[in-house]
Design goal:
With 457 residues, the protein is mostly beta strands. The chain contains three helices and 36 strands. It has two domains: 12-333, Methylamine Dehydrogenase, Chain H; 338-352 and 379-447, Alpha-Beta Plaits (2-Layer Sandwich). The protein has helices at residues 338-356, 391-403, 430-439; strands at 12-17, 25-28, 33-38, 46-53, 58-63, 68-72, 77-80, 88-92, 95-99, 105-109, 112-115, 126-129, 135-138, 142-147, 151-157, 164-166, 172-176, 180-185, 193-196, 201-206, 212-217, 222-227, 232-238, 243-248, 254-259, 267-272, 277-283, 292-293, 298-303, 306-311, 317-321, 328-333, 381-388, 408-411, 420-427, 445-447. A four-stranded antiparallel sheet has the order 3-2-1-32, with no helix packed on it. Strand 10 (105-109) and strand 11 (112-115) form a beta hairpin. The longest helix is centred in the C-terminal third of the chain and has 19 residues, at 338-356.
Length: 457
């Protein structure tokens, strides 16, 4: 198994989002050990997973009405991204692009949603994230390249087929046809080229680096492999039987292939990329979230009513969560920092209460009290939520925050033209300040100007 001990690296986690509503929970991989972290707010009922946005610390998913939501893991609350309807999605770094049936594009980041000034037109059936924040829009027989500023800038003719996939970087798109594979790539000006295969593809997937395309072929007990840069077929990988679907390990160590068959009992074969051979077999349904291979090499999948973790190389058992198969699962690196932030807030409240307590005078002859440990070095940081010329408005916000348990303070104007400020803090690090600020679900900024500080000159 891959190590999680790199200095400063966040642990690899599995996040469990209840389909029927309820508490979001976290589990540490590879053993699926339950984390004490839980989200303070329950999300909407979820239908399917989109992805985990690791940069933005949020879970992206659809509800039963087709609306897209993002669950902020730092703030612990849900954000609505789109209204109900039919939305196509593409995720690039920390940006989700959602395209409606009429071509409206909504660009979603962890802190805001904004529509593109220029749409991409109706009729899209698939979308992919391209290089440089571009959007690849697939219609019946055309592939269009669009950007936020200019809209569609290029369109090429492509096969009209339901079998379509894109490379992780969005620099190539592959199409499965009755006689082989068509690829359109940015490096070739998006002009399509063709590789003939002996059989009709049933599914296809790019390797993480984009250099290979794995193809399952109807009525053939093998997994075809196409070298994208050489534009030719490589030696096929033998399979125990015909295959229906393929799914790639995002870290390039394994390929998951679902056998042709009906029902939930169709086996899934695990193929080692280094050896190009089948290394094991599991039985599990395929859904939008699972099976999936995590960065640390844990293979997560549904087994009966449980979700289990096994080593993707050996299929040795690593852990299991009972009665969890009905929920949605996400995997990625993430630090459950909210627990630490809440502990800091509790300490701040305790310090505040101590400061308000009567001073205890030492009795004559009593031993001196132990010295208080010095505070961490560096100036304290504050979260500023509002600045108002009205003391009453800022004071009401401070009182509301205090009722919710936040260490809020009212800061008087620091100079001419300055207003009353609502502050939360102090915090020793920017990460801690930002984490609490996001939980407030209000506009904010982080400042060194605490209560009593003069305005900058």
């Amino acid at each position: 198994m891959a190590s999680q001990d790199e200095p400063g690296a966040a642990p690899v986690m599995a996040l469990r989002l209840p389909r029927a509503g309820g508490t979001v929970r976290a589990y540490t991989l590879p053993t699926l050990a339950a984390s004490p972290w839980t989200a303070p707010q329950a999300p909407s009922t979820a239908r399917s997973a989109i992805a985990m946005d690791q940069i933005g610390d949020r879970l992206l998913y659809r509800d039963r009405d087709g609306s897209i939501h993002g669950f902020d893991l730092v703030a612990g609350h849900e954000r609505d991204i789109t209204p109900r309807g039919h939305w196509l999605t593409a995720l690039s770094t920390d940006t989700l692009l959602a395209v409606s049936s009429d071509g409206t594009v909504i660009e979603s980041k962890p802190w805001s949603e904004q529509p593109w000034p220029v749409g991409v037109g109706g009729g899209a059936r698939r979308v992919f994230a391209g290089l440089g924040s571009r959007l690849l829009v697939l219609r019946d027989d055309s592939l269009a390249i669009a950007s936020r500023e200019a809209g569609i800038t290029l369109a090429v003719t492509v096969p009209e087929t339901p079998l379509v996939t894109a490379s992780r970087n969005g620099d190539a798109v592959a199409f499965g046809t009755d006689s082989g594979l068509v690829v359109a790539a940015e490096g070739n000006g998006w002009h399509p080229w063709f590789v003939r295969l002996t059989g009709a593809p049933t599914d296809l997937a790019f390797s993480p680096s984009g250099d290979r395309i794995y193809v399952t072929v109807r009525d053939k007990s093998e997994l075809d492999v196409v070298d994208r840069f050489a534009r030719r077929e490589r030696p096929a990988i033998p399979l125990p039987g015909p295959a229906a679907a393929v799914r790639m390990d995002a870290w390039g160590r394994a390929v998951l292939v679902r056998a042709l068959g009906s029902g939930r009992r169709a086996p899934t074969w695990v193929i080692g990329v280094a050896t190009d051979r089948v290394t094991g077999r599991i039985e599990t349904p395929w859904r939008s979230d699972l099976p999936v291979v995590a960065e640390d090499g844990a293979l997560l999948y549904r087994e009966g009513n449980a979700v289990v973790a096994r080593d993707v190389r050996t299929l040795d058992s690593l852990g299991a969560v009972p009665d969890a198969a009905g929920d949605l699962w996400f995997v990625g690196r993430w630090t459950p920092i909210m627990a630490g932030v809440m502990a800091r807030m509790e300490a701040l409240r305790a310090e505040s209460a101590s400061a308000r307590a009567p001073i205890q005078r030492p009795r004559p002859g009593a031993a001196p009290a132990a010295a208080v440990a010095p505070a961490p070095s560096g100036p304290p940081l504050w979260v500023q939520l509002a600045e108002s010329q009205s003391r009453g408005g800022a004071d009401e916000l401070v009182k509301a925050l205090a009722r919710e348990g936040y260490p809020a303070e009212l800061a008087a104007p620091g100079g001419p033209g300055q207003g009353w400020r609502a502050l939360v803090g102090p915090f020793a690090t920017r990460a801690a300040a930002d984490s609490v600020a996001r939980s407030l679900a209000r506009p904010y900024w982080i400042t060194l100007r605490g209560p009593g500080a003069a305005a900058p000159q």
